[in-house]
Structure formats: structure tokens, C-alpha cells
Design a protein that fits this description.
Blueprint (H helix, E strand, L loop, with lengths): L16 H5 L2 H4 L2 H21 L5 H12 L3 E2 H8 L3 H13 L3 E6 L2 E9 L1 H21 L5 H21 L1
Antiparallel strand pairs: 1-3, 2-3
Helix pairs in contact: 3-7, 4-7, 5-6
């Protein structure tokens, strides 16, 4: 019979099945951990947003328009990290649902300026709530302070690597 290992409080800690199969030297690699958490996060977010007929790119565009203001397709691509070639499709989806409005740029009629619509403004808080719930699920093992710390550390890493690339 195998011995049961308990933590300091006498509880049997949750052991990830993958943890028992994964060599310790791999489990200590930040790059591998970030990648694996990213895969799980993407799956959780994509599946959760799909339940409300949304995608993460919809949220990114609507949040950008609400928080920063109207912009061209190129500006939205830079703000959100969505490839320019994919941005047209995302904007088409949002426009079909009356969540964004397109208008010719008065300074350059070849370009459109994209604005969040009143319906998009009403829809965005619903997506915020869905994402808040999904993030609670993703970060469930962490305390509120640990969640804040993790986010601040990830921002610092991303900012550093964004500046140096």
C-alpha cells in the first residue's frame, strides 16, 4: 500500500497526473510552464466565449474601441495584436452583428475608421463578466494577492520582450 503524503495542514494535496509523469527538470522550466498554461487558458477562454457566440478577437477589438477610441483597421491591428489580414474578417463579424460601425476616414477616404456602436457598448460588459468568470476558473488555485502578482509579473515580462523585439 502506498503512503499518503500530506501537506503541513494535514491535507492531501491535489497531485496533477501529468506532474507524476513529467521529469522535474521540465516542470521547473518557466517557458514550458507558460506554454502549457497558455494552451489551457486559450482552450478555456475560447470555449467559454463560444457559449455566448463570441471570440477572443471580438473582445479585443471592442475593448480597444471602448477604452482607446475609434481607429483605422491598421491601428486596431497594432492595438490588439490581430494580424491585419485577419482584422477584416473580425470587423466583418462585428459589423454584421451591429457591434461596430465603419465610416470613411475624413483625412483619407481609402481608409475606414471603426467605432464601437451603442449595441457594442451594451455587449462589452457581458463579455467582461464572462471573462471574469473564466479567469476565476483559470486562476482558482491562487489567492487574490497571488493573482494580482501573477498579472503584474506577466505584464513586466511582456513589456520587456515587446520593447526588445
Amino acid at each position: 500500500m502506498a503512503a499518503v503524503i500530506r501537506d503541513e495542514a494535514g491535507n492531501v494535496p491535489h497531485v496533477d497526473v501529468g506532474a507524476r509523469k513529467t521529469p522535474d527538470r521540465l516542470r521547473r522550466r518557466a517557458s514550458r510552464l507558460l506554454s502549457q498554461v497558455s494552451v489551457r487558458s486559450d482552450r478555456l477562454i475560447n470555449e467559454g466565449l463560444a457559449q455566448v457566440d463570441a471570440r477572443k478577437w471580438h473582445y479585443a477589438v471592442l475593448a480597444s474601441l471602448q477604452d482607446i477610441g475609434p481607429g483605422s483597421q491598421a491601428a486596431l491591428s497594432e492595438r490588439t495584436g490581430i494580424y491585419r489580414s485577419d482584422m477584416v474578417g473580425v470587423l466583418n463579424e462585428l459589423a454584421e452583428r451591429d457591434l461596430v460601425e465603419r465610416a470613411p476616414d475624413p483625412d483619407d477616404r481609402r481608409r475606414n475608421i471603426i467605432t464601437i456602436s451603442p449595441q457594442g457598448r451594451r455587449y462589452l460588459p457581458r463579455l467582461d463578466k464572462v471573462l471574469d468568470d473564466l479567469h476565476d476558473e483559470l486562476l482558482a488555485p491562487l489567492s487574490p494577492a497571488e493573482r494580482d502578482q501573477l498579472v503584474q509579473l506577466l505584464i513586466r515580462l511582456l513589456d520587456h520582450h515587446t520593447r526588445t523585439s
